[in-house]
DNA sequence: CTATTATTCTAAGAATCGTTAGAATATAGG
DNA sequence: CCTATATTCTAACGATTCTTAGAATAATAG
């Protein structure tokens, strides 16, 4: 992507546009959302975003050329990660803008993330207070590798796919809180629905792990 | 721009992408930068951004469809404005990301906004302290209509084009500070260069008017 | 009602982007 | 060196976006 000769100002704006353009495709937003959970190989990105491997590679290239992601090689695998936490902050800002400004977005969020049969989502502040009081069972329902790369201290890893066979081991006398990747991730929604159906008192965290970290709350990593 | 049938999640991400796409063109970033100064007619946007009228209208339509700008009609003119202040915040976040991540951007900024013959830019905090101490002459070198729509209290309006004939009226025993639209606006840079050449001690504000307002500092409007 | 001004709408060619197939590269393990 | 695996590169086609010309609309002044 060569930038043509121009006034310094418009040259500058073309570079700004290049960054915005990198996040201007649904597939790349989903990839950035995934990478906000931790580094992933190209293959893992492709599986996580339901893109073909070649297509995921092509999108990752665009993100890398805009310097929004960085890579490291380990053997035959190449791991991509966000170039800096601010990348996720920009993403959340765009998502917030879309949710405030676009009625269609609010509608989808209402229908899929605020189904009225469910309890209100828990705020991060409330969760922290209840964790300190040892008042809730906190479930991280993301895939295990994402849990390993950083999770809320005190959370237990129960990937959504494993949840059915963990139902018997969870205490039923405490409220359960489930969280996943972020406000627009369906894992915690589905986990909460399953738990509610089987008699648990369950709520989900309003946001996800990267938001928790971005707010400065403590994060635990598996060695 | 019809959005096709899809999973709720990818539908959501397509809407997010729509917002990012609206800011993914240099011309539209420049337009948003202009509108951050206050509302402008289509004609004024076209002149301010050196786009043809039809092209400016087409870009404004895209911004309106992404709900980033809003309009009001006054007679035969239609005035566009940012839909909410957060639009400018997202823009600055993208610009900040570009400046931190892209060496080309840092290079342009170094060459055109940090020419080493000039004094260090003034921070907003420093400016406020010196305004309180009545220690500087503050020049708003933007066009008069932008000054009228909101300026730093105590600033006098001296559009860059008028600066040569105001040189005699400015006190030479105090430091002058010039500001304009933002960190990437050249008006204050050029004003500072002219003032320095004619013997003034001059610095420019590191950021512009919308940044000042976004930080919560007071803004004065002409009735 | 007509003329004028400001803006939008429609349409079309040029430019750019997205997707994917096939070839190429890079590393690790025998 | 050979093979397998992970990923990238190249090239092509279709889809989308950009720009602009010409026609249409909307409000105002006479």
What does this structure look like?
The structure is a homodimer of 223-residue chains. With 223 residues, chain A is an alpha/beta fold. Chain A has eleven helices and seven strands. Chain A has helices spanning 8-22, 26-35, 42-49, 53-65, 85-101, 103-113, 124-132, 144-148, 163-166, 187-197, 209-214, and strands at 40-41, 69-74, 77-82, 136-140, 156-157, 175-179, 202-204. In chain A, the strands form two sheets. The first copy, chain A, has a four-stranded parallel β-sheet, sandwiched between helices. In chain A, α8 links the parallel β4 and β5. In chain A, α3 packs across α4 (53-65) and α5 (85-101) crosses α6. Chain A is globular and about 65 Å long. Chain A starts with 7 loop residues before the first helix and ends in a 9-residue tail after the last helix. Chains A and B meet through α1, α2, α5 and α6 of A and α1, α2, α5 and α6 of B. The first copy, chain A, binds a DNA duplex (30 and 30 nucleotides) through α4.
């Amino acid at each position: 992507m060569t930038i043509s000769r121009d006034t310094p100002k418009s040259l500058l704006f073309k570079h700004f546009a290049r960054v915005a353009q990198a996040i201007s495709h649904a597939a790349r937003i989903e990839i950035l959302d995934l990478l906000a959970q931790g580094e992933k190989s190209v293959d893992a990105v492709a599986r996580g975003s339901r893109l073909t491997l070649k297509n995921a590679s092509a999108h990752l290239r665009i993100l890398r050329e805009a310097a929004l992601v960085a890579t490291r090689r380990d053997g035959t695998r190449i791991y991509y990660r966000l170039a800096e936490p601010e990348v996720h902050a920009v993403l959340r800002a765009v998502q917030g803008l879309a949710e405030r400004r676009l009625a269609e977005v609010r509608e989808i969020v209402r229908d899929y993330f605020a189904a009225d049969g469910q309890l209100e989502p828990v705020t991060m502040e409330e969760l922290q207070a209840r964790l300190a009081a040892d008042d809730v069972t906190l479930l991280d329902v993301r895939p295990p590798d994402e849990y390993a790369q950083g999770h809320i201290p005190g959370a237990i890893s129960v990937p959504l796919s494993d949840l059915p066979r963990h139902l018997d081991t969870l205490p039923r006398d405490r409220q359960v809180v489930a969280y996943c990747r972020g406000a627009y991730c369906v894992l915690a929604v589905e986990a909460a629905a399953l738990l509610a159906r089987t008699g648990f008192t369950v709520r989900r965290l309003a946001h996800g792990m990267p938001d928790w970290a971005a707010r400065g709350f403590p994060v635990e990593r598996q060695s």
